[in-house]
From TrEMBL:
<dbReference type="InterPro" id="IPR048503">
    <property type="entry name" value="NamZ_C"/>
</dbReference>
<dbReference type="Pfam" id="PF20732">
    <property type="entry name" value="NamZ_C"/>
</dbReference>
<feature type="domain" description="Peptidoglycan beta-N-acetylmuramidase NamZ C-terminal">
    <location>
        <begin position="293"/>
        <end position="430"/>
    </location>
</feature>
<feature type="domain" description="Peptidoglycan beta-N-acetylmuramidase NamZ N-terminal">
    <location>
        <begin position="78"/>
        <end position="288"/>
    </location>
</feature>
<dbReference type="Pfam" id="PF07075">
    <property type="entry name" value="NamZ_N"/>
</dbReference>
<feature type="region of interest" description="Disordered">
    <location>
        <begin position="34"/>
        <end position="56"/>
    </location>
</feature>
<feature type="compositionally biased region" description="Low complexity">
    <location>
        <begin position="40"/>
        <end position="56"/>
    </location>
</feature>
<dbReference type="GO" id="GO:0033922">
    <property type="term" value="F:peptidoglycan beta-N-acetylmuramidase activity"/>
</dbReference>
<protein>
    <submittedName>
        <fullName>Uncharacterized protein YbbC (DUF1343 family)</fullName>
    </submittedName>
</protein>
<dbReference type="InterPro" id="IPR048502">
    <property type="entry name" value="NamZ_N"/>
</dbReference>
<dbReference type="InterPro" id="IPR008302">
    <property type="entry name" value="NamZ"/>
</dbReference>
């Protein structure tokens, strides 16, 4: 699909009205469609998203399907939850390929005379350059003049006054499929605030690069935090759109309220289809390898082991000054860089392992974590309090300290994973 902002504006709106003729009607305060997902009764994948021809398929992300959603925005005041990944591609994506030709969604909608009132930015900011956990200030986007509201720090949930001029909220963020990657926590709070304010939410869906497997311990709600808000495994195998329908259907929002929700699904996509992210989703996930390893290596963020922040191989190496030099011969020295202004062990030699050429994972790897624990100088200093939040349970730390093997630990996850898979099946849009 070619996207020509100026020449095709009128055509897009006309085609949109025709192709979206199955919409029953629009409410003054939002939209209602025949496939309304407020009650999260999602059609099976074969009706929601036709089986792709994987030989010649081109992945078409939700944002690119302007014909499907522009009519929903006509005459509305729009809020957008977006970052640097929220783009419309000038050419569709083939599996395992990247496409540098794109226009930001906000820029495109403004060019199409859509009334964009506010951009809401998650962790790392609207342009995606802030460190993990760094406070992001509200401001004005210098390119468009649109106000930016940060959804990180003390303002994780949009306030009523920040939503008073919004009729429809768009959520378009590239996720990586890990429970502790905070974009799905931002999704929760946006849906909750919009449900309370009777504002419909429109999800422009994107592929999950780690959507080909499900693994990890189920979060226990006693350990709920911004890096884990729901009783799901570490790797959930769902897209943002699917996950939003699960949040709604399982009534995880405050007091069990539900959000008026519509998902623009990805075309020609399955969960088993490899997907190379055209834009890095955050400063410390610079490439496909780091994204694949992230789900396993992020556990180290709850220990005294570095995951390579402050190097050019973030989440592709791990190490610390305290690991046994004879068993961990690879070395690196963290320095300040983009996404790591003050990295752990700055200017100190770390001994560890280089995983840049490791095979891609189809399950969580606990072997690296267990090996690092066994080979650290002072085991009492290895774990910190953040580890339990990342793991979602106290059991994993206790199991590692007790000397259980990876296989023994994973056996204890089986029942929870089977139960989650049954629940997940109710919300799948893609095979």
């Amino acid at each position: 699909m070619r996207f020509n902002i100026v020449k095709n504006t009128v055509l897009l709106f006309v085609l949109g009205m025709i192709s979206c003729g199955n919409f029953s009607k629009k409410k003054a305060d939002g939209f209602v469609t025949e496939d309304q997902t407020t009650n999260t009764q999602i059609p099976k994948p074969k009706t929601q998203n036709p089986k792709p021809n994987t030989q010649n398929s081109q992945i078409i992300v939700g944002a690119n399907q302007t014909v499907a959603y522009l009519p929903l925005l006509k005459g509305k005041r729009i809020g957008i939850v977006a970052n640097q990944t929220s783009v419309i591609f000038k050419k569709n994506l083939k599996p395992k390929t990247q496409n540098p030709n794109y226009t930001h969604l906000v820029d495109s909608l403004i060019a199409l005379n859509v009334n964009v009132k506010t951009v809401f930015a998650p962790e790392h900011g609207f342009r995606g350059t802030a460190d993990a956990g760094e406070h992001i200030k509200d401001g004005i986007d210098t390119k468009t003049g649109v106000p930016i509201v940060s959804l990180y720090g003390d303002n994780k949930k949009p306030k009523p006054e920040q939503l008073k001029n919004i009729d429809v909220m768009i959520f378009d963020i590239q996720d990586v499929g890990a429970r502790f990657y905070t974009y799905i926590s931002s999704l929760h709070y946006v849906m909750e605030a919009c449900a309370e304010g009777n504002i419909p939410v429109l999800i422009l869906d994107r592929p999950n690069p780690n959507g080909h497997y499900i693994d990890g311990p189920i979060l226990e709600m006693a350990n709920k935090s911004f890096v884990g808000m729901h009783p799901i495994p570490v790797v959930h195998g769902m897209t943002i759109g699917e996950y939003a329908t699960m949040i709604n259907g399982e009534k995880w929002l405050k007091n069990g309220i539900q959000c008026e929700l519509k998902v623009i699904p990805i075309k020609n996509y399955t969960h088993q289809m490899p997907y190379s992210l055209p834009i890095k989703p955050s400063p410390n996930l610079p490439n496909d390898k780091s994204i694949n390893l992230y789900t396993s290596l992020c556990f180290f963020e709850g220990t005294n082991v570095s995951v390579g922040r402050g190097t050019n191989t973030q989440f592709q190496v791990f190490g610390s000054p305290f690991l046994d030099k004879t068993n961990f011969t690879y070395t690196f020295t963290p320095k300040p860089n983009e996404g790591a202004k003050s990295p752990l062990y700055q200017d100190k030699i770390c001994y560890g392992t280089n995983l840049t050429t490791a095979k891609n994972l189809n399950s969580l790897n606990l072997g690296w974590l267990i090996s690092a624990y066994k080979n650290t100088k002072n085991k009492a200093d290895f774990f910190n309090s953040f580890f339990i939040k990342l793991a979602g349970t106290k059991k994993l730390q206790q199991q590692i300290e007790a000397g259980l093997s990876e296989a023994e630990i994973k056996t204890t996850w089986k029942q929870g994973l089977e139960s989650f898979k049954e629940t997940r099946n109710n919300y799948l849009i893609y095979k």
